[in-house]
Amino acid sequence: MIAIVDYKMGNLRSVENALRRLGAEFIVTADAEQIRKADKVLLPGVGNAAEAMENLRAAGLVEVIRSLRRPVLGICVGMQVMCRHSEEGDVDCLGIFDARVKRFVPSADEKVPHMGWNSIGNLETKLFKDVRGGEMVYFVHSFYPELCPDTIATTRHGVMFSAALKYENFYGTQFHPEKSGDVGERIIANFLKL
Amino acid sequence: MVAKRIIPCLDVKDGRTVKGVNFVDLRDVGDAVELGQYYARSGADELVYLDISASKEGRATFTRLVERISDGINIPFTVGGGISSLEDAARLLDAGADKISINSAAIANSALIDQIAARYGSQFVVVAIDARQGEDGIWRVTTHGGSRSTDKELFAWASEAQSRGAGEILFTSMNHDGTRSGYPCDTFARLAEELHIPIIASGGAGSVEDIAQVLTAGRADAALAASIFHFGEITVGELKSELKKLDICVR
Question: Which end of chain B is more exposed for a tag (fewer CB within 10 A), N or C?
Fold first, then answer.
């Protein structure tokens, strides 16, 4: 059973739909016991990192997430809260990935938010099995995790940043695999096979 | 580098897509989900669904349709038409929309942009602006399909929308819309100069060249089109291979 963590950070419908299309069984829950028992945990999230941390704390899930030993996938803000610190609201996060989350500085060629399809490269780990470097996935964000030893995919938007991170059983993608067409579905399917 | 996006726009009335489309080999061309899936397969980067139903029943039907779109489509989609309150936005978010587009309601009540962005994030809010350039050279914002003028000026309003929390601007020139004579690229370029959020160009595309121009000289981040796709003049895939030949970064 897969647990999608519901901590009131945006609509979960597209993540649920992606799992449904792949024929996976899942529950949507904020219950610590169910999350601990799950074979896989998905931590989606759209919105503000500081608010996301606050909501995790309010739900009593900070230690629960940190102590998970089965595969966990954070998506977008769900990944950012697994980093060390975010400039968004100057908040200390879960500290699973050794990256800080920084704000993009807009320029003539780099709009903020970074919105749309961009290519991922330097792909590592089974999360990207059968995904070619240079394939495009969908991003929507104004803050990005810096490069660090946990980086398993990179993207450039003015700066080079971590498009995906991994530390032990924890994975995170800054992009939205659930909105990234067939490539995204392949990545979610790979996560489900871990 | 982030790719330039190509976004087909589908008009929906009482839960059914309207306009041409009889070229597409689909079971039911009026089915918004099937048509959306067809566009997604042919390479569309996002979709926009515009509800043109006037009635309350039409709106309820549209919300149920948005749920079905969300279930059936694996690329982002925006919904617009008749959104005038935070509650409307919430209802469509819950139904699975990735973004909403607001136009007249934002002009009547600009605080609506702040409210929706504060609640659901800027990435959820597209502010659509229809404007017409007068003989004095000034771009005035219009509503109701260009039939009503407002006292707002395009660049000032676009900047205000950005500072209130809009995540993207969808700009249509009412001088060019429906003419198929191309886009006002200098105006798009000035918008790009003044704003830091992405700009979607709409209205006026008659050819691949027009779209290429607005994405390069006009510095637009995305092009939205309806008729050239619906009437089968070119597929999204064909358009993108043409743009690629012109060294424009597309997916």
Answer: N
Yes or no: say if A176 and A120 are a contact pair by the CB < 8 Å rule.
no
Helix (H, G, I), strand (E, B) or coil at A136: strand
Two structure tokens written together for A165: 């991170």
CA distance A60 to A69: 18
B11 has catalytic annotation = yes
Domain count, chain A: 1
Listed by number, the residues of chain B in 85-144 with a beta carbon closer than 8 Å to a beta carbon of chain A are 93-96, 98, 120-124
Q: Evaluate the omega torsion of the peptide bond into residue A113 and state whether it is cis, within 30 degrees of 0.
A: yes
Note the pLDDT of residue B26. Answer: 60
What's the pLDDT at B59? Answer: 82
Q: Is the peptide bond before A145 cis (omega within 30 degrees of 0)?
A: no
State pTM to two decimals.
0.94
Residue A119: give its domain's CATH number: 3.40.50.880
Distance CA B239, CA B221 (A): 16
Q: Which domain holds residue A166?
A: 2-193
Closest Cβ–Cβ partner in A14, A119, A156 for B70: A14
Low-confidence ranges of chain B (pLDDT < 70): 19-29
Sign of CA dihedral B100, B103, B106, B108: negative
Please tell me the distance from the alpha carbon of residue B196 to that of residue B183, in angstroms, as a whole number. Answer: 20
Question: Which residue of B2, B76, B95 is in closest CB contact with A157?
Answer: B2
- Nearest CA to A166 among A190, A184, A142? A190
